[in-house]
Amino acid sequence: MSDHRPTGIKRWLYTTNHKDIGTMYLWFSFIMFLTGGAMAMVIRAELYQPGLQFVEPGFFNQMTTMHGLIMVFGAVMPSMVGLANWLIPMQIGAPDMALPRMNNWSFWILPFAFTLLLSSLFMEGGAPNFGWTFYAPLSTTYAPPSTDFFILGVHMMGISSIMGAINVIVTIFNMRAPGMTLMKMPLFVWTWLITAFLLIMVMPVLAGVVTMMLTDRHFGTAFFDAAGGGDPVMFQHIFWFFGHPEVYIMVLPAFGVVSEIIPAFSRKKLFGYSSMVYATASIALLSFIVWAHHMFAVGMPVAGELFFMIATMLIAVPTGVKVFNWIATMWQGSLTFETPMLFSIAFVILFTIGGFSGVMLAMAPVDFQYHDTYFVVAHFHYVLFPGAIFGTTAAVYYWFPKWTGKMYNETIGKWHFWLSMVFVNLTFFPMHFSGLAGMPRRIPDYNMMFADYNMWASIGAFGLGLTQVFFFVTIIMAIRNGKKADEKQWDGATGLEWDAMPTPAPYHSFSTPPKVD
Amino acid sequence: MSTETEEKYESYYVPEQSPWPIVGAVALFFIAYGAGNFIQQSGDFVETGDAGWGKFVLMGAMAVMIYMLFRWWKDVIKESVEGLYSAQMDRSFKQGMLWFIASEVMFFAAFFGALLYVRQLIIPWLGGEGNNAATHMYLWPDFIPQWPLTTTPDGTTTTGMGAWGLPAINTALLLTSSWTLTIAHHALKENNRQALLNYTVLTAVLGIVFLALQALEYHHAYGEMGLTMGSGIYGSTFFLLTGFHGFHVTLGTIYIIVLSIRCAKGDFTAKHHFAYEAGAWYWHFVDVVWLFLFIFVYLM
Questions:
Q1: Does residue B3 belong to any structural domain of this protein?
Q2: Which domain holds residue B287?
Q3: CA dihedral A64, A69, A74, A75 (to 10 degrees)
């Protein structure tokens, strides 16, 4: 097949090319990352000092809600889908994704879904203000009218995610080059296969729960109303049945990314490949039976608390296997510390901190103390920022030379890393302390005793936000006049995309399948 | 790259650019925007007497969406008839359809989960079971836990829907329709075109009769039984479960009607008929959901 590229706006609107669609996903997610980040800046500005300085409490609630929704559904998830689009066909030796037109549809739904969601900021009564977890009855009886558009926006995101996941799973099962058996697939492909399975299983449940909200709001049903025989706690059960697998949806592809990068810069094979696969699958399966650990404080029967506590702690076992394997891969390797490797090592360390605080939160009696405090905020930001987002960032630096044939500026990349590393900890580590001391999450004002921690966190957050400019600058500079990348930029890299494909990657991937030994 | 691989390899068809996905995305946006306004404006309807403009946006966008799907599938059928699709492509479609049905199963699972949670836990707890004796005493001491929940905690009353009238007939209808569709599918594989057409049409007719009876049942529930969406949790679960099922039967029936037309026009071959197979799978899925409905919503 020729390397003919369509030109003009139609190239992007009508495209069926996995690389074009991947690029659009990545830029979209970056724009959403900055949008959600700006909202985080509003939050941290208000929390810089105790007392109310900049925004009304109601608007503050809208900011926490929209920040969470945009980061989860607009920044992290699309960034992972973008990487999947770029990499999976290249890594398994396929010509493209299995269903290219549907791939385009999956992407183009997203900008419209987020237009709908963001437009709620300008509606009468303001944007949704009940937190990204939108618990009933805050999201039903007491919610602003814009909640209906939030619900329909979530439906659109769900449709996009389900179609994207079906595409990924079919591509992996049906489009592998001859000889690319399942247990030869790169780990990024494996983790995405499992992620896609999770998406197909839980996104429809999210659609179900927001539908119940909609009918409770407008059609007189009583799902989340005890006076009619329903139960607001039931909302939490259904939501978290979606919500807990969702957190693995966000981080599993990042596991895959670092499982590619750490071996490359250690010049060693990944330690324990098959155990990595099984550990990922175990994490995914366990994620279906742990949801109520988000709800220890609602008054569940003790048997329920015990079950969900123990099941949750079990997840530490396969996660521990993975962390062990990453470290064992580095052990006695000839390590070099280019930007992707730095982000990956930081991922291993900082994600583990987030994992440990997760084990602390898993203990039901202790969680009664931590529940809804800043400790929880610290925990999930540790797994999401230095986890999922460092993972994506590492992936972009690592594959950028392959994708574009150009090399980014390593010095700026390293500055991006080190500043991110310092500021991410300055932002989120003090939240552990303020949380343990009892500071509730989602409040615009707080007791004087939390002032120091919050000031540090705010300074860290402003720094962290500004640091992402380095990322933007280094990528733009590299695209415009980056120096030519080597045919194989990283000598330790393995896989079809490095060994069986020229640099930069041609517009169409393998039109005849490569040979896999 | 060995020559052997090249010889065995059938090329996978990657379509050139297509305008339909972006049209679909725009249509979906206006469906959501129109539906949101329509729902909110029909809430004002009682006060203002004006149903608002939302429904026009919604209907217009739906029309665009239907047109888009029509054109998209027209392209797909054309490509298939031109022989562009390899066996591998066929597998992509089949696997895609199966995962789509898996996602549909999970959508219904959310509502079945809600139903079971309500029946097994919430209703007994509201009645004071477990450690909820004080809750019961202070909140709604007169509340009697039972299913169907004919009197809600706040005193709304309704009637339970029996299983052995229309629902039993509907069960028989749907089971029969799955059977007729299977006969038709076998006829297609044996290239018996007349039986194929007859039994496909019969399946569609059974679907339509099912929907008509379901409408009759709703009419009866609203008109005579006082069973509405607002009748507390029993009405909520009843109408959302049967309603979403009915919506899926509607889509399935339209699908089968389209298949009937395509059969009459001579589409599909004994070996190559993914669209027919996918429709059959979808219809069987809808049938299985009904069996669970019949057991958990009507019978138990």
A1: no
A2: 88-299
A3: 50
> Is the domain of B112 the same as that of B224?
yes
What residues of chain A lie within 8 A of the CB of B232, using their CB?
A: 222, 228-230
Confirm whether B10 is domain-assigned: no
Whether residues A145 and B40 touch (CB distance < 8 A) is answered with yes
The amino acid present at A382, given as its one-letter code, is Y
Using one digit for the tens of pLDDT, what is the confidence trace for A382-391? 999 999 999 9
pLDDT value for B49 = 67
**B24 and B144: one domain?**
no
Q: Out of B84, B111, B144, pick the residue that ends a domain.
A: B84
Question: Residue B69 falls within a domain, yes or no?
Answer: yes
Residue A515: band (very low, low, confident or very high) from pLDDT cuts 50, 70, 90 = confident
Query: What CATH number was assigned to the domain covering residues A20-222+230-499?
Result: 1.20.210.10
Cβ–Cβ contact A195 with B under 8 A:
no
Q: What is the largest CA-CA distance in chain A?
A: 68
Q: In chain B, what residues touch A158 (CB-CB under 8 Å)?
A: none
Give contacts of A220 with chain B, Cβ < 8 Å.
Answer: 228-230
- The number of CA neighbours under 13 Å toward the Cβ of A448 is 0
**pLDDT grade for B34, boundaries at 50, 70 and 90:** very high
- Which of B63, B84, B105 is the C-terminal boundary of a domain? B84
Q: What residue type is A92 in one-letter code? A: I
Looking at residue B99, which CATH number applies to its domain? 1.20.120.80
Q: Does A152 touch chain B (CB under 8 A)?
A: yes
8 Å CB contact of B106 and A202 = yes
Distance from CA of B265 to the nearest CA of A (A): 27
A237 touches chain B (CB under 8 A): yes
Q: Is A214 on the interface with B (CB under 8 A)?
A: yes
**B149 contacts B233 by C-beta, under 8 angstroms:** yes
How many Å separate Cα A218 from the centre of its chain? 32
Residue pointed to by tokens 């202070």:
B138
Residue ranges in A267-301 assigned as alpha helix (H): 273-286
Which token pair is A259? Answer: 């499982």
How would DSSP label each residue in A208-234?
HHHHHHHHHHHS---TT-GGGT--HHH
**What's the total number of domains in chain B?**
2
Q: For tokens 């409040």, what's the residue?
A: A443
| Residue A92 near chain B (CB below 8 Å) | no
Same domain, B112 and B78: no
* Structure confidence at residue B4 (pLDDT): 42
> Are B175 and B250 contained in the same domain?
yes
Q: Does B116 map to a domain?
A: yes
pLDDT tens digits along A252-294: 999 999 999 999 999 999 999 999 999 999 999 999 999 999 9
pTM over the 0.90 mark: yes
Query: What CATH code is carried by the domain that includes residue B60?
Result: 1.10.287.70
Neighboring chain B residues of A116 at a CB cutoff of 8 Å: 29, 32-33
Active-site annotation of A, residues: 67, 96, 132, 160-161, 244, 246, 248, 259, 293-294, 319, 322, 441
Q: What is the mean pLDDT of residues A415-441?
A: 97
Per the DSSP assignment, residues forming a β-bridge with A299 are: none
**A 395-424: CB under 8 A from B:** none
pLDDT at B6 over 90: no
